[in-house]
């Protein structure tokens, strides 16, 4: 039986046209017409003013923190329930990550816990420089409340929309809510450039500065002159060509991923003890990954590990939900605000195969494999 992957690249067939154009024009560099075109495509689609195409989502997060002046001794509040790349750049800048728990309506950062964290870090005399909210598995966080809290306390909001291209909240696309917004085009994301990312903002000066820093911070001089520390974070014109081909089909990809989720929900919601990542009123997830929670008290002792291992034995890849950052060895000393919501989601949650290129037969293999655990 062929392997069923969690989320594999799904090319449209149009990518090679753009890559070919780059070869024909000899634009084999981290700049060129595909980079410009990809940035335009992203701005138009997301409804953002400006975009810088970068080498990764991690690079975009790092530049976002630099642009906000995050440095030694500062505090950045970050959703705990996420991939480590959301938090690592805080440490690159010598700042302290402070982690915030999730809420159950979206599985993303809890507005209540965020408010408590801001007040208590400020009371400790900390300089709270930014908030990083994540839209996990493509599910929008509660942006209205989060924006209000950030405005009230005058703290800039960074949206980590790495998993959420194509998702929207109250009719507005994810990646357009923060002062600075991050996308990723890694190989397993909803669209891919093989590896890549972008920083989006309505503030043109931020994006110009991001491009400057991402190309080694060269001053305007005929020789190489530097007044600031620079980075090599730009996206290659070849990779950007792949991105342009992918942007032609982004809405189809979202529809396919949502159809996967609908299929799983239809097939599995009859099983006592299996629930799904909820989609609140006004939220539209891209369903990058379809996620379930398995409650062993209701399944007669069947855990998410029972299911994961049963699927693995049938050559089907499924994966536990993200392990929260406040439980990671590297962040064990970082402050944490909240209860144990993300911890419980991690203990009982499972991501099912979710690629937009899965066949109906493959999806059926997954649900049959799960149902067998309950016979
Ligand atoms: C993938 C991902 C990133 C990092 O993106 P890369 O392009 O892999 O550097 C950041 N945050 C989240 C939530 C992600 O899933």
TrEMBL record:
Transmembrane segments: none annotated. The keyword Transferase applies. Its EC number is 2.6.1.102. It catalyses: GDP-alpha-D-perosamine + 2-oxoglutarate = GDP-4-dehydro-alpha-D-rhamnose + L-glutamate. Its cofactor is pyridoxal 5'-phosphate. Belongs to the DegT/DnrJ/EryC1 family. This is GDP-perosamine synthase. It comes from Runella rosea.
